Amino acid sequence: MAKQLIVLGGGGFSMEKSPLLDQYFLAATGKAWPRIGFIGTASGDAENYLYKFYAAHARYDCVASHLSLFRPEITDPLAWMLAQDAIFVGGGNTRAMLALWKAWGWDQALRQAYEAGVVIGGISAGMICWFEYGLTDSMAGELTVLPGLGWLPGGACPHFDGEAKRRPSLRQQVQAGAMPGSWALDDSAALHFVDGQLHRVVSSQPSAQAWWLELGTDGQLLERAVAPDCLA
After folding, report:
1. Contact 34, 27 (CB under 8 A)
2. CATH number where 72 lies
């Protein structure tokens, strides 16, 4: 069973009217009527985020549900995860989300679901958490480097074109060696990994780009644009 991760820098049902990235995520399951679950831990299981998730997915041929840590209703989170065809993780505070997942064992449960073939992914916090490191605004002040789950090598940064501090901060961190070679995604762009290898770069808007930043052999910062396949 292929292991799939699909991560969005921004966009999707929570940020744009286009359904293309949501539909791409569902299509990756290969199911005609997939079961998709939403985890909103990073936002504190915000009700408006849940509403957006259910309102969007009511338009598609799928069965939607969610798993809440703050208002728990599911008695066996692992069984719920394994019963899904796809799990989408929302944005918010990455540091708090990872701390809570580890305290409740959800990080290990999600890994089991991933290994079992459930399509895993998400946006913003739900993008960077799977990498070794992420550039996050989880703490007050400047953007900081946060260790992630390490399912994917390197670093990651969302909202590369949507938040003014993202590009200069990531450049600085990679240049200083605080971040390894890193993926950055504009809003409306996504990376699709299969078995840990990049499979495809997609976007819902023609202007959205993906970026790879690393240090060259001479110590100079290299920044390379990777043009996505635009789904529009």
Report:
1. no
2. 3.40.50.880
> What residues make up the domain containing 140?
4-230
Tokens 């991560």 belong to 7
CA 110 to chain centre: 13
Contact 170, 179 (CB under 8 A): yes
Active site residues: 124, 159
pTM above 0.85, yes or no: yes
pLDDT of residue 140: 82
How far, in Å, CA of 116 to CA of 189, rounded? 26
Residue 12 has what DSSP assignment? Answer: G
Residues 78 and 112 sit within 8 Å (Cβ to Cβ): yes
Is pLDDT of 55 > 90?
Answer: yes
Q: Which of 17, 7, 4, 51 is nearest to 155 (CA)?
A: 7
The H or E element containing residue 225 is: strand 221-226
103-148 pLDDT, tens digit per residue, is 999 999 999 999 999 999 999 999 999 999 999 998 888 899 999 9
Domain total for the chain? 1
C-alpha dihedral (194, 9, 111, 89), degrees to nearest 10 = -130
